[in-house]
Amino acid sequence: MKTIFLVIDDGFIVKNILQTEVFSTLRMSPDIQLCIITDTKKVADYEHRFGGVRVMVEGIATQHLSLSEVLWGKFLRNIPRTKTSDISMFGGPFSTRKGLLTRFFIRLIQFMFNNPKCRMLIRSFDMLFFRDREYDALFKKYQPILVFAGNVFSPSDVGILRVARRHGIKTVGMLKGWDNPTSKGLIRFHPDHMVVHSYRMRDELKELHDYPSNHTFISGVPQYDMYFTPDDSSREEFWGSYGLDSQKKVVLYLEPGLFTSQRGYEIWIILDAFLKEKCIQPPSQIFISFHPAYKVKDEVLAELPNLYFYRFGLPLSKGRLKSVELTDEDLHGIMRMIRYADLVINTASTTNIEAAIFDKPTINIAFDGFAPRPYYESVRQFYDYTHLRPVVESGGVKIAYDKEELLEQINELLAHPDWGSAGRKKIVKEQCVYTDGKSGERIGNFILSLLE
Fold first, then answer.
1. pTM above 0.85, yes or no
2. Local structure of residue 92 (DSSP, 8 states)
């Protein structure tokens, strides 16, 4: 029996692997057993949800990093240089502005190390310096023939990949999301093969991380497979379950949470005022879905009776981002609320892609509530990030820079939902590549092909 390690760093990777045909395809192979490696706090939950015949779950301490690992990670965050890293250096809604001396050293690091030869030396040093002895017992116990890591920027994933390389075991890595190549720093380890969602991500890996394109497998986005397959639910049934009138227009606002937008709750108040003053035509309902992982101003909710609020997902450990898990019901709920919305509003979110799949008119919030904030403290900086520029430039979404513009765009798009349709098709083509609903199956079959 051949064993494959599936390294799952957090709940947002589960929806790309374990809750898709990636897992199902691997699981159907009769001569393969799977070992899911995850945070020790999630073992019981994963055993219940995914365990079974030829599927084991092993726990590791994913949060206990040594000081050297922490410092090394901070160093690597500054390489390579991108538009995203340039903006982030001057602060943001969730980060403080770096001092002049710190910025000087960051620029010095980028000048000295941001080139292919130095990046290769950095990865070689990484391999030699970090030994990851804590994972040796897992390899001795299971003797895997392949390791598949769902997030090559996770320290635990990198550690297990390094041990696999020392044991001569095949390695496959995957990027967690579309922003990773340009916003997470330098990839520390080159697995034998890399799975990416799109050609754009493949090219960014080559340009910024020196990863060979001929070792990159372009899969599409497995978590969106359900978006491209028929669904037997109905608009009436779905919105009715949340207390909404399906005969009226529904404006969906994806709340980013305090981590991304510190004054985001003021957008709720603005939207509530639009309804109370009957500014939105035709008369509509506003459904606000909170980010599964980030906190919001709960005390404000009771003051806004005209809005509908809901949060999908459940944290397994209090206060930890990576502890949030989304059930299959949650994932289908998120998909359906976008499918059945008449208009989607978000703040620099992947929801731009999800809304584009369903060709939904979309508005991006680029202001911070009641009072303007400086660029480097404002959410409007997000729209200059490297990964978001193609979406902004696609012509498929609108950007609202103040509340007056937001109201104008809401009414315009409710009246003319076809606006930007060609741009949304471009977003789907660039970011999803495949629209056949078989990206998970494609990844699973690719992994199995490496065992032949």
1. yes
2. B
Those residues whose C-beta lies under 8 Å from the C-beta of residue 325, and which sit 6 or more positions away, are: 11, 14, 42, 45, 313, 314, 315, 316
If you count them, how many residues does the chain have? 452
pLDDT attached to residue 260: 75
Cβ-proximal residues to 374 (8 Å cutoff; 6+ apart), any chain = none
Report the pLDDT value the prediction gives residue 244, as an integer from 0 to 100.
Answer: 96
- Every domain range in the chain assigned CATH 3.40.50.2000: 2-67+111-225+437-449, 230-431
What would the pLDDT profile of 288-308 be if each residue is shown by its tens digit?
A: 998 887 778 778 887 898 899
Alpha helices (H) along 175-313:
180-183, 199-209, 235-241, 265-276, 298-301
Strands 170-174, 193-196: parallel, antiparallel or unpaired by DSSP? parallel
Q: Is 403 left (phi over 0), alpha (psi -120 to 50) or beta?
A: alpha
H/E element, 436: none
Q: Is the pLDDT of residue 318 over 70?
A: no
Domain 2-67+111-225+437-449 class in CATH: alpha beta
Q: For 192-225, how does the pLDDT look when each residue is reduced to its tens digit (9 = 90+)?
A: 999 999 999 999 999 999 999 999 999 999 999 9
Residue carrying the six token digits 């991304």: 260
What is d(CA 329, CA 15) in angstroms, rounded to the nearest whole number?
Answer: 12
Considering the domain delimited by 230-431, tell me its CATH architecture. Answer: 3-Layer(aba) Sandwich (3.40)
- The yes-or-no verdict on residue 321 having pLDDT over 70 is no
